[in-house]
Specification:
The chain is α/β, with parallel strands linked by helices. The chain has 13 helices and 14 strands. The chain folds into three domains: 225 residues, Spore Coat Polysaccharide Biosynthesis Protein SpsA, Chain A; 51 residues; 83 residues, Rossmann fold, CATH 3.40.50.
Length: 384
């Protein structure tokens, strides 16, 4: 049996998943592993772009978008690793991520699944790195804002568990599907992902079922980068609807026994939050209807290179976009050459700056592939 199986689901994010695979391949050196990439009928040329760059990856090409849960299960049925890592394509892991996860799992036979410290591209701690099960009361606290008002309370702030020290291993309840590490034996006991969830909610459901087996879910303060949303296009109305439908599916599956006095307010709150999300999305889409919006945004921003020896080459790459490199000590975007810099060093640099008022956003540059990956878009010469 192999030591590790890594499963990634792709849908129209070929450049982000290329970066993810590059980071996984570096992290997996010395580990007996296999990597699955399940493509949910992408139309962005993933089928021709990715295989030559990652010849050791096992690709599964779906003829339709079957959803996140079902796509992961397709690979899990073929995987042979003792450990399994479900990983979003819009993540970047470090050279230490896999060894740290395996070491903690080996040291904790009572562990069912492990999540990690997720960072936004500007180094901010992503609160979904550690969450509580959204019981009716916990969901009520989240929906009404009590969780935000009393984040350190173990009673009212349980949704994001901010009362736990983010720099230490802790017991949590929900492992994010963006980076979900577990044993194959645990999945055999709890069951695989529930395919009633097309996308969103399946990680909460699986985390809950693992806890019901008597095992514990753990948080590990090893950092990874999560772009959030690039893998799901969550800025579309379709995915807003899917997200709030998933919350209802989870509630009906596990808490349908609650009285109508409890269930009705929870369902109403989910509906209200869905309407609020639609309105926010409408405002954001209206702002971005201008086709030159992103170009103007980047031209107004400052870019700085972390390593000066690549400055001329990067400036040549950015010039067609009207972007000039800056020498400012507080740039909007900090660019790293991902082919010469360790991913761990990139995240360490961004993590150190996270206490600053002005937080630079991490950008990765792959000179040999002629791509510059930002959280908003990917620059390629073909787009100039």
């Amino acid at each position: 049996m192999l030591q590790l199986s890594v499963v990634i689901v792709n849908y129209n994010v070929k450049y982000y998943v290329h970066q993810c695979l590059c980071s996984v391949e570096k992290a997996a050196q010395g580990i007996d592993h296999e990597i699955f990439l399940v493509d949910n009928h992408s139309t962005d040329g993933s089928d021709t772009y990715l295989p030559p760059l990652h010849p050791r990856v096992r690709f599964i090409w779906n003829q339709e978008n079957v959803g996140f849960a079902r796509a992961n299960n397709q690979a899990l049925l073929q995987a042979s690793g003792r450990y399994v890592l479900l990983l979003n394509p819009d993540t970047l892991i470090t050279e230490h991520t896999l060894t740290d996860l395996i070491a903690l799992m080996d040291a904790r036979p009572d562990a069912g699944a492990i999540g990690v410290k997720m960072l936004d591209p500007d180094g901010r701690f992503a609160p979904e790195s550690r969450r509580g099960i959204p019981t009716p009361f916990t969901a009520f606290c989240k929906m009404t804002g009590l969780c935000r008002l009393l984040p350190k309370s173990r009673t009212f702030g349980r949704y994001y568990m901010q009362y736990l020290d983010a720099s230490h291993v802790n017991e949590i309840e929900v492992i994010s599907g963006a980076c979900f590490f577990t044993r194959r034996s645990t999945l055999n006991q709890s069951g695989y992902l529930d395919e009633d969830f097309f996308m969103y909610g399946e990680d909460i459901d699986l985390s809950y079922r693992i806890l019901q087996t008597g095992l514990k879910n753990l948080y590990l303060p090893t950092p990874i980068l999560h772009y959030k949303g690039e893998s799901t296009h969550e800025s579309t109305y379709h995915y807003v609807r899917i997200f709030y439908q998933a919350m209802l599916i989870f509630f009906r599956k596990h808490f349908s026994h609650y009285s109508i006095l409890v269930s009705l307010p929870v369902k109403f709150a989910i509906f209200a939050k869905g309407v609020e999300a639609y309105l926010r999305l409408a405002l954001k889409r209206h702002r971005r209807e201008d086709p030159d919006y992103m170009t103007h945004y980047f031209q107004r921003s400052t870019f700085a290179l972390h390593a000066d020896e690549d400055r001329d080459a990067l400036q040549h790459f950015l010039t067609p976009y009207g972007i000039l490199l800056s020498d400012t000590p507080s740039p909007d975007f900090l660019v790293f050459n991902a082919e010469t810099t360790d991913y761990a060093d990139m995240l360490r640099c961004i993590d150190r700056s996270s206490d600053l008022r002005h937080r630079p956003i991490l950008v990765t540059w792959y000179p040999s592939q002629h791509i510059l990956v930002t959280p908003m878009m990917v620059f390629t010469p073909s787009e100039t």
